[in-house]
């Protein structure tokens, strides 16, 4: 980990963790939206990406991206400013980010009414593992 213990050092970035973080359509959309912005406060990014997920779910996605080393989070007072770690990712995995994001427009164009949309849950497909009384 780096000196702030919240972001992995560039040499500690793992390909599997980066790919797993970018495999989720919501996280891929977040990265796709954040790249042209350079950096953005969380609330502005949530709005810019057009996400309909809750703030807590968005926070979870940020954590996954941060822990994988895809984004950097800088705390500025009460705001969290996010940016993509483009240089670190390019140095560790040359061309990977460009390759993964080449397919990203399909994610951004996904209809929000799709039953397979990442922000929707089909109750018929959810199983609980709590013991029955």
TrEMBL record:
PROSITE patterns: HTH_ARSR_2 (PS50987)
TM segment ranges: none
Annotated HTH arsR-type domain residues: 7-104
InterPro entries: ArsR-like_HTH, HTH_ArsR_DNA-bd_dom, WH-like_DNA-bd_sf, WH_DNA-bd_sf
Protein name according to UniProt: HTH arsR-type domain-containing protein
Organism whose genome encodes this protein: Fodinicola feengrottensis
